[in-house]
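Researcher: Please generate the 3D structure of the following complex. Treat every line as part of one assembly.
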Amino acid sequence: MKPRPDETATAEELRKRIAAQFGRSLHIRTMDTGSCAVCEQEIRLLAAPHYDLHRLGFFFTPAPRHADLLLVTGPMVRAFEVAARKTYEAMPGPKVVVATGACALGGVYQADPFVHGEVEAVLPVDVWIPGCPPSPLALLQGLGVAVGRLAEKMPGLTFVADGDGDAR
Amino acid sequence: MNPLDLLYGAGGAWLAAALAGLLAGSRRPGLQACCALSAVGGAAAAAGGGWSMVYGNTGLVTPGGGPTIVGGPLQLQATSLAGVFVALLGLVAVAIAWYAPRYHEPGRGTALYLAAYNLALLACLAVLAAGGMVTFLVAWETMSLACYLLILRHPRSDASARGAFWFLALSEIGFLLVVAAFVILSSKTHATALDAMAARAHLVGGGWLAAAYLLALIGFGFKAGLVPLHVWLPEAHPVAPADGSGFLSGVVVKLGVYGIALFAFRLDPVAGAWPGLVTMGAGALTAAIGILYAMGERDIKRFLAYSTIENTGIIVTAFGAAMIFHAYRLPALSAFLLIAGLYHVANHGCYKTLLFLEAGVVEHATGTRDMDRLGGLVHRLPRSAVIAFTGTLGIAALPPLNGFVSEWLIFQGLFQGFRTGSDLYGILIVLAAATLGLTGGLAIYAFVRGFGIPFLGMPRTRQAAAARETGQPLAGPGLLAVACVALAVGAPVMLAALSRTARTVTGVTLGPLLLPGKLTVLPAHADFSAFSPTYLAVFLVAACAVPALIYLAGRPRAASVSVPVWDGGMVSFKPRMQYSAMTFSAPTRVTFDALYRPAVSVTRASDDDPAGRSGPVHYEAQVTPIFERYLYRPVIRAVEWLADGVRPVQSGDVNLYLLYVFAVILLAYLLGAV
Amino acid sequence: MPLWFARGLRRGVVTTRYPARSDPSAASLPTPPAFRPRQLTVQIVDRMIAECPGTALSRAASTLVFDVGACTACGRCARVAPHAVTPSGEFELAATARSALVKMIPIRGEQR
Amino acid sequence: MTAVEPRAAGGIRDRLTGALSGLGSLRAEHDGVTTIGIPVEALERATQTAAGIPGVRLADMFAADGEATVLRLVWAYEADEPGYVVTETEIDGDQYPPLSDIAPAAFVEECEIYEQFGTRPADGKPLNRVMLPPHDGAGLPTLGHRPAQPPADVHAPHFVGGQAFEFPFGPVRQAGVESLYYGLVTSGEEVVDLYLFTWHKHRGVEWRLRGKTVREAIFLAERAEGLSAVAVGWALAAAAEAAAGITPPPAAARTRAVALELERLYNHAAATAALGQATGLSVGQAAAEIALERLLRVNAAAFGHRYLFGVIEPGGVSRAPDAEVLRRELPGAYDELRRTADALLSTNSFVDRLEACGILTVEQARRLGLVGPVARATGLATDARLATAGAGAPYAGHSVSVVTAAGGDVFARFQVMLGEAAESARLVTEFLDRGTAAECSLVAPRAGTGLGWAESSRGEVLAWVALDEDGRITRARLRPGSARNWRGFDDACRSQNVFTDIPIIEASFWLTVAGMAR
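Model: Done. Output below.
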């Protein structure tokens, strides 16, 4: 698809703009590109009393025209690619694409005639949220990271267990 | 020199046009000559009609002196009341003359058709210019026959035979009633000239006056299409050529209205308010029923025909209310409503003819009149779409166009029903106003559908997608569109002229009660309301233009991306996925199902298949034609039964006929002897 | 509706304080593994890679390449070498660069 | 046909196996599964006979490619110790006798088999698309040889005549739901007809499973329909175990059952929440979601995963539940759900929307071979947990009372779900008392075929596998409950409903597109 001003911008300044524009309120459009329905269940639970993402100024919207953030789950089935592109195109910029769950990050399916294997193959992803499924807490953290409200911890993590700290 | 002379000219031109048509044969020049002559006649008629509106009634002239036609003198007179209709006749004639050469293929059928058409024009003119009863009736019958030929343009198809038959049968019944009405009046007043009848109306007993009026109302109601006498319109309009339908709706139907007005306001001053009430009720009923049936039609021309019925109803309602006000000694209001009604006559004549002409354009471009087989024509016939849209705005009575002006006037008149002082009549008049309100709302809904389904969206069939603007007639409809705008913006002028007409007819001078300033209009009383069509039009245009200008001015600075419509990520959008004419009107079908009695039938491929294989689906909600089924069919059966009864008389045996002759002669002698 | 109103009052607040405070329920969530380089040998690593149902684990010479993004936290690697692998307990894994999710774990275990 | 009373001892089972083996040859019989070879010429008669016996339903039909394409029909008999009969038929050529007119439930499978193997029923009747996308289905690999021409596409040019039009909805629908396309034919208000596209989500799971070990296969199968991960995983594992001729240790089997019942609980809670959302009752939805979240946390505390992924292992289970946690937390969580349900049932604005909405008759349920709560709500007492031989072993000795209702409307489905939730809570404690353990009996690589089943919250899940000598899968068939029940959905929507009923009906079915599209 043809690049938009907000796509050509570097991720850094994009994140700055988004933090400036959506710092307080942001509307989320979810898109299922072939998930196993569990990620969807977790996403629905974000709005449930236990997590209540509205308190943080996030809202779900069915209309991509009103959406600032595209929460993509699933390994991007090739047959769905048209719909995925259309949905992305239908969103006004600046927009954030969040790949959600191991499928979307390429952990479960490899690229083959059925699926692309990861969202990145079709859409420009800005934030990656691992997990199978990512728990609502992980999703909240990811959303916070996406709008630059929470610091991302990932670069700091080594996944080297304690007691082996000298692994550096 | 008076308007009548112009009308002679018009008549002559049309006679010549008719002859030219006959002689034209299959040659295009002949066709063009015929149309040119008819246009000249139209121009003359328009001028003469306009003039006689303000001129007043001319004296009665009897060219050829004594008894010339069927035992009666040929008596002509140009009257203000008729002037409105004559002017409309002329305008429509010009528009159609401009339209016809591009619409019709040269050929014998066309030539005969045009001859019949011009004859019909002439007959209509004669009806309107008739100063005597015999002239009127002869002209009226001629007009009916000419229109019958005109509807029979394609005699082979039995649909057109059926339509033409409905037209002729009903107008003949109507004719008999009208004759009866005239006979009553002339026998009681010993006069045949209309003026004389009007002058001596006081000699006639109230009962006879009432009887005559009711006969006339019903008789002309057949032509005007009052419910339940309307059934010929939806049958005849679709089968006639587009310009023929335009002529039928624009002029012929209006002649019925003219007849009603003639009796109500000139010849037949019935005492009491109840005739007005009957008229008003019939009008309101007609309006509501007409628009409701229009909602159920997907054939554009049938749809327009029903909308014609609705508009006739509105006009007749205004006339009825005018009669009531007259009975209650409110001459100003009476005259005001007469003016409003006549204004609506002119408006409807313009935009309805326009819409029929455009329907013809659409049919030529796509080969169908079924709305559910059209769509997206605005991209394929842009110029016609603009013209049709103007007419649609007019007929939907939306400001700033002319339909709004006349309907506003009618409402303002009806809302003043309280001035009658009679609770019953006050309430009934306001009730009629409410009915017209419902009608107006439904009319907007109906014409959103009537324009949106064929012109907007995606083409639903290949034919609709293949439509192209290739030399289709624009000038004729265009002229009418201009007339619509003129009748809206130039409302004060029109109203000034009509107030002169009203003065001639009712003897009431509205003057400042109608037009205090230059551009403001009052509904006959200064303390009720006021508005200015002209200012309104200007304001609305500005209200649309200013934001557009701001947007255009601001445009370069706003960075914008244009993307396709959001369709839920479907692979491809199909024409079958858009609202169709019948689904758009489904809510009314549900709401008024008591009237429609829709018979729903659903067929799914999946139903008769054990495995629930999904496949084609067909859904039909057929509306029951109540009047045909419960009013006319019994009558037709009775007639057939009678026919069967008398058949033995017609054995075809010569001797039997000789016996009949002998019996008759014998009877004559016996009677003579007695 | 009063019924529901009363219910709501009786139910009280269940909403988590996250992200302001940590949430206790996070303790029982499955989390990606953390590795003990000293306990890792090439053989163990290859067995883990064979066990991993996804594409999370791979080996470059003497480095275990761990793609946290692809990890489904199924715990199969931990069952291969319980002594070398423990749950990391980390669930705040969102990253703004795919590369930040790929971790290099040195294989320090002495070859036997 | 005159019903010979099916309750006679061994009645149905013997009649079915007798009739079928009379037409063919008995091949194998163990663990509640009887395998019978039927020659292709006798297939039609066999189907007629089996379909004619009351209490017997066609549970699944699928093909496998060997030297010849083998067509397998799975018949389930519900009465007196229920079980399954698998008929095997070698098809030569690319046509077989039309079965969907005898047993209509076979229609969707006929379509799938045509798409995957190119063999079609002998009658020329059109077949619908199931998995192949209309716009770029050509390149997709298939399990067998590709059909000569793509399926006669009955859906896409789905002609709408007269005064109705097609209201397109999806595939990208409201936020937080799966991708699904509705072709909604309407006259403006009422639903005249409805059809679904699910190929947006077809990931070719069955195609991927070939050549995988059972462990890898279970990992993918869990993700074929994540909301019934345990049921699908269990069915596949059980099939593999049957093929390898082993049985999991009883404690491990009970552990599976615990996980399965927990899965049923949270799914019914989720369906309740969805019903609250669909009826616009946000407070009820919130209350149900509190219960749902509590149940999910119980899952996480007991099994280490909110959705119980990775519990099922070939030959047993990977983890044992934390029994104390379950005993401590589960009753409270379930109570939350029960009290919410009571409150919902005493809210008229909620109940009124459910009653007489989305009605399915028992005939429709039988004809389309529906399973699970949808079928039970019409009065069919079908439940795979009753088949306690083989795969269903842990349920032996625990009398599972099958909850049914009459009416077949949304309300009936809701009541069935509530009844089952109570039953599940009871069963979990029973299983815990009998003892659970994280054990696995070793699955020795060995060639063979096997059928496995489990009752997910959406209904019976069937799995069938063929293993080669070193225990790798040559053909695996997964048939989640969703794959069956979606075909009842459009019928339910059609029965004099309007637009706004559809979300309610969808919530009451509580299916996943993932399970349908696999």
